[in-house]
Amino acid sequence: MSAPSLEIPLRLSEAMTSPLEPLKRGDPCTAVILGAGGDLTRRKLMPALYHLLHDGLLHDDFSVVGAAREDLTDQGFRDKMKQAILESEEIGHVPDATWDHFAQRIHYVRGDMTDPNFFAAVSARVAEFERESGQSRGRLFYLALPPSVYGTAVELLSSTGLVPRMDDPAQRPWARVIIEKPFGSSLDTARALNQTVLKRLAEHQVYRIDHYLGKETVQNLLVLRFANSIFEPIWNRQHIHHVQITAAETVGVEHRAGYYEQAGVVRDMFQNHLLQLLALTAMEPPVAFRAEEVRDEKVKVLRAIRPITAATIDQFAVRGQYGPGAIDGAAVPGYRQEDRVAPRSTTPTYAALRFLVDNWRWQGVPFYVRSGKRMARRATEIAIQFQRPPHLMFQQDAGRSFAANVLVIRIQPNEGVSLCFEIKIPGVDVRTTSVQMDFGYGNAFGSTDHSAYETLLLDAMVGDGTLYARSDQVEAAWALVDPVVQAWAAEAPRDFPNYVSGSWGPGIADAFIARDGARWREP
Ligand code: NDP
Ligand code: BG6
Fold first, then answer.
1. Closest ligand 2 atom to 247 CA
2. Whole-prediction pTM
3. Is the peptide bond before 173 cis (omega within 30 degrees of 0)?
4. Which of 109, 118, 117 is nearest to 63 (CA)?
5. Which among 50, 336, 344, 361 counts the fewest CB atoms within 10 Å?
């Protein structure tokens, strides 16, 4: 039974009752999207740029150039992008005046990246805007390309002079490159890609994106931990029994089987998003909310995690694959029946991993991290499960034990924070029950319609890499997940599919966590 919930009547400070002046606005720049014919540009990037402009967060001196292989004019590309923005979940309504303002900043260059003339054409376009601008205009290249060509794209951007190496971060006009995920498919390939990229560019020019870091509640995790004084003293092994991080999705593999069959859930979700969440939860307080300080602390956590090896994998990890079932009452196929999935595929669509962070703060506190497709509900959350009271002086009704306090940070949906604690039930007897005190972003601030990509694009335009991954972080994360991926590849699972679509994952995952005297929360 879930605990009754107490909504906190919220009084916002005066500053919050009137619109806030933005703390940052994009620099003058030209953003070039390589691979602008793709899904990411349509669904995420263009709506995010439009929204930034709508909110007055782009500099007046801004242009975006879409570069792709389709034969389109500037106007043809603008029409496609308008359609994409109208279809976007976050936007819907596009006033004519705002659109016109945005549309005149959108341009298109046609070509294949492997054609030397292509970069010459991009260069000519960028130079034209820079001449017209008359001021120092930055260059932001977004690689919305297949991962197999990230390295080549960086080499060509460098050799054509579009993105010169800049050892001094203060050099102007700046030139930066955003690289999409996946950054490599193993430790070796990630290292090789880092080498290729860093041979040409300085680290501060490279923005390795992880869209989870742009999510409102992920950033709020830092504020919750470090802008309050009540959490830090109990944020350690003396007070915390274990941590559960869940990223459950109801969607299946959708149209991405070509990629997902090779990737599987550990590469797709753990190497990046989930290890980022773990690192933010476990890291020491950085001295400042600045890129290098935050990244240094996160890397330390990743390096402190005890490696999982082929010999220990059964103690540290379980895997699953969804079979047919139902989501919201509608029948859905199993993974092996999905389009372009091998009928005997052994790709895991669910994993639960137990990470141990070998440092003073976290010694002996397991971090259970799980993610799966086609789960019962869409929910991403971090649950901090505190220790039970050391001595129970209250008599309990038969069959009921005290629930431990749990602090839950809901990343999505229904973003917010809740705390579960025990209270006395009114009456002459001293009987206790668990209740939940709840803060919901939606109730407090109304729905937020800005996406993670807006935050991240704006950060790249102002040169703030705090919410992007550094090369050592990416490699440290690969070093942790690679042995899991390899051990599972070496030993085919015998029980796949082992969970029904619409459930909370395979039964073995319950036994896995129960070994440590814990059980999965139902988000
Ligand atoms: P798509 O396959 O939909 O689009 C890729 C784009 O790259 C297309 O426009 C394609 O052109 C273009 N392209 C491919 N090869 C070349 C080439 N040689 N020269 C020029 N253009 C080329 O991919 P997505 O948009 O979905 O994803 C882009 C990247 O973002 C991928 O790396 C993906 O992993 C990552 N990503 C995507 C997410 C999403 O939600 N879509 C989420 C997270 C990451 P053409 O149209 O002519 O084929
Ligand atoms: C992507 C993964 O990085 O993140 C997808 O490739 C996954 O498989 C997605 O569905 C989840 O992102 P979000 O923002 O919907 O939680």
1. 16
2. 0.94
3. yes
4. 109
5. 344
